[in-house]
Design brief:
291 residues; alpha+beta; Glutaredoxin; Glutathione S-transferase Yfyf (Class Pi), Chain A, domain 2; four-stranded mixed β-sheet; three-stranded antiparallel β-sheet; Glutathione-S-Trfase_C_sf; Ferritin-like_SF
């Protein structure tokens, strides 16, 4: 039995990213239903099968319960899948993680408004106003507080990667996209998000998931994405490839990419293009690449 999750454009919908990470990063199977933002697709999809949801993400459980909002999704998944580790097992760390998630869910309005999530570009600056700088200062304060409370030895805030970190993933992308000024400790946390396997998959899909949304376009000078540099793959014509079946679906090859002079095939353009965007984000592809 699998969950259903309604999401918006992967390149832009920060709430959708957060909701999807609550599944993928914790190994919970989910079927996504994507609806284009700023069209009637999302309200129609929600009305047709996800009432009373009004926004992306909205989850439907295997037994048919519709759960909107990421806070509710996180808690419901944690209740149904305690083995997945969405929240820390230690009571103190768990309490800290829930504090962090709640503040992220409700706060940081200036940062959200001035720096909407856009995974397709990175700018040299966004000229952040004082309210955005204040939000960044608050982020650094609570991130440092979480580490001091939990004694987290690794890159994450409360020990192992938890729902609290999933909630801050869209903030990490904003810092990366808009080159926002944060201290080295905070930037190390951002870099951990950019390198996280689930985030790399989401961003790779977001880079090829439909046309650019004009609402998010800015005129600031651009720079390279500050996360891991992808392998230099490119889409090519034809169907000749080393593999006869798509590494994701097992279906016959119809679309091909080239990487370091070798050709690999996929069952559709999206499978190919998300792999071109970041080959190392996809373990099934890397398995045949290294074979």
């Amino acid at each position: 039995m699998t969950y259903d999750l309604v999401i918006g454009d992967r390149g832009y919908s920060s709430w959708s990213l957060r909701g999807w990470l609550l599944f993928d990063a914790f190994g919970i199977p989910v079927k996504t239903h994507s609806a284009r933002l700023y069209t009637d697709e999302l309200p129609k999809m929600l009305a047709d099968g996800f009432f009373p949801g009004r926004t992306a993400p909205t989850m439907r459980t295997p037994d048919g319960v519709v759960v909107p909002e990421t806070i509710a999704i996180a808690e419901e998944l944690a209740s149904r899948h305690p083995e997945a580790g969405l929240w820390p097992a230690d009571p103190k760390a768990r309490a800290v993680a829930r504090v962090l998630a709640a503040e992220m869910h409700a706060g940081f309005t200036a940062l959200r408004n001035h720096c909407p999530m856009n995974l397709r570009v990175s700018y040299t600056t966004c000229e952040p106003p004082e309210a955005v700088l204040a939000d960044l200062e608050r982020l650094e304060t609570i991130w440092a507080w979480a580490r001091s409370q939990t004694g987290s030895p690794g890159p994450w805030l409360c020990g192992a990667y938890s729902a609290a970190d999933a909630f801050f993933a869209p903030v990490a992308t904003r810092i990366a996209t808009y080159n926002l000024p944060v201290r080295p400790e905070a930037m190390a946390y951002v870099q951990a998000h950019l390198a996280h396997p689930s985030f790399r998959k989401w961003r790779a899909m977001g880079l090829v998931d439909g046309a650019d949304q004009e609402f998010y376009r800015r005129d600031w000078q651009r720079r390279d994405w500050p996360g891991p540099r992808p392998l230099p793959a490119r889409a090519v014509d034809g169907t000749e490839a080393e593999n006869a079946a798509c590494p994701y679906s097992g279906k016959p090859v119809t679309h091909v990419l080239e990487l370091e002079g070798r050709r690999f095939g996929f069952c559709n353009a999206f499978c190919r293009d998300k792999t071109v965007a970041d080959p190392e984000a996809w373990p099934a592809f890397i398995k045949i690449y290294k074979a």
